[in-house]
Design brief:
Structural class: mainly alpha
Order of helices and strands: HEHHHEH
Radius of gyration: 27 Å
Strand content: under 5%
Strand order of the largest sheet: 1-2
Shape: elongated
Number of strands: 2
Length: 244
């Protein structure tokens, strides 16, 4: 699973959560004909759309920075990073072993007899296949856990975004997590960005204290990475000398 695909999934979650909350908060509460309060048949719900407010301003928010920038986000992503460290170290060990075997083939291949050289090549192939599979599994596991943290915080952040936008007179809030041309936002000014305000409101509501190591720099979500093995190098030419 690539980071681009993960972002596309989270983008769908953003629209769904915020739209659902905005529609719920703006629905007629009681008494109107056909409303749930009367017990009469209700009109079929319309397809979900991006929520817009009654104000006149257009604002922006970087959803990714907002979620990761909260005290809760910093705490949980840092905990995930530490949780994944043993697996990262394990993959690094596998990668180092694979590199050493590849260097051995490169430097000693022409000195080995045919059987020994074939055995070393086979050993490299088996270990590389196992390593690649381990890397893929580790990346998918890390991304799934990142996604769970992101969606959990976003679900609680959605009403904070909508309320702040409504109270501040915004007609629409646009996500700027992806730069143009990946998103339709070509340019925006910092004056209309509500990311910091939403983070501050969320932190107050959640009650999660700021991490002790919190600094001025904007945090970023940990990217699931794994060490990469050396690119396979051309095999050394076989020696013309008889096997020793």
């Amino acid at each position: 699973m690539t980071r681009k695909f993960l972002r596309s999934i989270l983008a769908i979650a953003v629209v769904s959560m915020i739209s659902a909350f905005a529609q719920t908060s703006s629905a007629a509460p009681t008494g109107a004909a056909g409303s749930p309060a009367t017990g009469s048949p209700a009109t079929p719900a319309a397809s979900p759309t991006i929520a817009t407010g009654t104000g006149t301003k257009i604002g922006t928010i970087n959803i990714e920075q907002a979620v990761v920038g909260t005290n809760e986000g910093q705490r949980d992503f840092e905990a995930l990073k530490k949780k994944l460290e043993p697996k990262q170290n394990e993959l690094k060990g596998q990668n180092d072993e694979l590199e050493n075997l590849q260097k051995q083939l490169q430097t000693q291949g022409d000195k080995l007899n045919e059987d020994a050289r074939a055995s070393l090549v086979k050993q490299i192939e088996v270990k590389k296949k196992s390593f690649d599979r381990s890397v893929q599994d580790a990346q998918e596991d890390a991304q799934n856990q990142q996604k769970e943290i992101f969606q959990r915080i976003l679900q609680k952040m959605a009403p904070v975004i909508v309320k702040h936008a409504q109270d501040s007179g915004y007609a629409m809030i646009v996500d700027t997590s992806n730069p143009w041309p990946q998103s339709p936002v070509l340019w925006y000014g910092e004056g209309g960005d509500i990311t910091r305000a939403v983070v501050d409101l969320y932190n107050t509501q959640s009650g999660v204290p700021a991490p002790a190591s919190s600094g001025a720099a904007k945090p970023t979500a940990p990217k699931p990475t794994a060490p990469k093995p050396m690119a396979p190098k051309p095999a050394a030419p076989k020696s013309t000398e008889p096997p020793k």
